Amino acid sequence: MNLAELSLGALERAFVDSLRRLDPQAPLPLLAAAALCCAALAEGDVCLPLARLAGQRVFDEDGEGLCLPALDDWLAVLRASPLVAPAGGFAPLILDDTRLYLARYHAYETALAEQLLRRSGERPPVDEARLGESLARLFAGNVEQPDWQRLAAAQAVRRNLAVISGGPGTGKTTTVVRLLAALLEQPSERPLAIGLGAPTGKAAARMAEAIRAAKATLPVDEAVRAALPEEARTLHRLLGSRGDSPQVRHHAGNPLALDVLVVDEASMVDLALMAKLLDALPSGARLILLGDKDQLAAVEAGAVFAELCEGRGFDAAAAADLRRLTGQQVPVETPTSRLGDAVVLLVHSHRFAEASGIGELARRINAGDAQGVIDLLREGREDLGWNPAPGSGALLDRLDAGYAPYLAAARAGDPPRAFAAFGDFRALTAQREGPWGVAGLNDGLETRIKRRLGVAGRERWYPGRAVMVRQNDYALGLFNGDVGLCLPTERGLAVFFEGEQGHRRFAPARLPSHDSAFAMTVHKSQGSEFREVLLVLPEQPSPLLTRALFYTGITRAKRRVDVWGLPARLEEAVLSRAERAAGLARRLALAGPAAPAPADPAPRAPGATDQLELF
């Protein structure tokens, strides 16, 4: 079989063609590995685990696929090729043990591991007496033992890397505001430069809003309150992204002017972006990552935040230090990661009470208890609903009823009232396509709305249309994921977006690429909260239906969630764990092979090109 007979995608074929130009004698098993590596990256994997595929048939859409060699034979072919280099080498493909990487992503992963290990080992000077007093005052209202919020704050002040994970309502934003206040109360020769960042514009806006609200009631003096930041930026804007180029304006040779960087919704940050972020952060600056390790990973390659949370724990020495500093009973759990006690998990939910059905459902999903999930949904809890045999007509009826209060508010043309009503209910789906995907649900509901309003089916705009922006438009200040509402005004229809200074108004024709947004994917809903959520699962089995997606979807709800899905789809979701192929956790692990903590590198000249960008 030759390469032309394989059913490769356009991107895989282009990559393989470029390798053949470099080495016209490249053997088919190597080219197949390269194509599979490229395809794996598109699916969110950082690398290709060769052992998982060795000896199997691939590209088998028509029954004429390629049978891959046994692992040892495959490794021998790869090691003999000039297109493949070992770890530390330089070639389009990197073979690291039995994992094959595109060179750029191997460089991202190794550089990120080195930066994390270096920062986790740094201990900035701290006035512990003042820190103890700050923590006691700032967290005086917390009665849980141990108070994980207080412990997370203590670690974030005492070291240059802190990873804080917690589910909805566990107080991540509250914790970070208080720990920043404690940090500002430390002796300092100059004011601290603190930056707030998030992966999306929507997440950045929500973070800034939450911090502004939280700092108003802090028991601190006005100088500290004034020093707390109130504005957040997207990570792409923070780094100075350059369109479609992988290069950014800020890097090791031109670092960010920050002493502290807080990143919210860090589970949404992919490997490449996280590597560039740490590369641009000055040596000695603190990095605080906030997220939920159980949520969906980034759309792009990598599950960095989840990997950072592996192997967390306080050894006896760390636990003793924290007991002395905070007065808390700190459990000893020997870490298996060299990040060790840099990672703190917040476990007490202030949003979901112990009797909360949503909270209990989230716990059972994360525990992989499929039967427990179904039993709980059958109980008829006040905040849980389940339709185990949904039909298309009934589903559209439910959507129509759910959005009726919003559509009534939209007709009044009052943006604050309309946005408040729109946030009360949201339909979430697992996938974009299909009758129960985003496209099908939006089309079905809009057909009903237009018919009721007497709007022609071909008309795109009508009072109440909700849209989501699909691409960043820096000139307009609109970003991927921003939601706008079409409302009547004295001059006709206009689309309004929420902003820091009130609601921003645009003519519909000015908007960048967008979709209707009555239904959105669970991926797009990350970082958002709604009073009530309708989670629609696909009729047919889908690789998108995983435990993380199910958990993320139901935890977008604050008061009630209705699950519409067949029992088989619920079971598949709970039992399917989306594990991405990567090597970051292995590089950070205490046991087994791992990258050593490197010496401080020499700074690069501004604009210098390095190995990250060559392939």
Structure description:
The chain is an alpha/beta fold and 615 residues long. 38% of the residues lie in helices and 16% in strands. The protein contains 23 helices and 22 strands. It has a six-stranded parallel sheet. It has a five-stranded parallel sheet with strand order 13-22-21-14-20. The longest helix is centred in the middle third of the chain and has 20 residues, at 392-411. It starts with 9 loop residues before the first helix and ends in a 27-residue tail after the last helix.
Which secondary structure elements does this structure contain, and how are they paired or packed?
Blueprint: H1 10-22, H2 28-42, E1 48-49, H3 50-53, E2 57-58, E3 66-67, H4 71-79, E4 84-86, E5 93-96, E6 99-102, H5 103-121, H6 128-138, H7 148-158, E7 161-166, H8 172-184, E8 194-198, H9 201-215, H10 222-227, E9 233-234, H11 235-239, E10 260-263, H12 271-280, E11 286-291, H13 304-308, H14 316-326, E12 343-346, H15 357-366, H16 370-378, E13 384-387, H17 392-411, H18 415-422, E14 425-429, H19 438-453, E15 466-469, E16 483-489, E17 492-499, E18 502-506, E19 514-516, E20 519-521, H20 522-525, E21 530-536, H21 547-554, E22 557-564, H22 567-575, H23 584-588
Parallel strand pairs: 4-5, 7-11, 7-12, 8-9, 8-10, 10-11, 13-22, 14-20, 14-21, 21-22
Antiparallel strand pairs: 1-6, 2-3, 5-6, 15-16, 15-19, 16-17, 17-18
Helix pairs in contact: 1-2, 5-12, 6-7, 6-8, 7-8, 8-9, 15-16, 15-21, 16-22, 17-18, 21-22
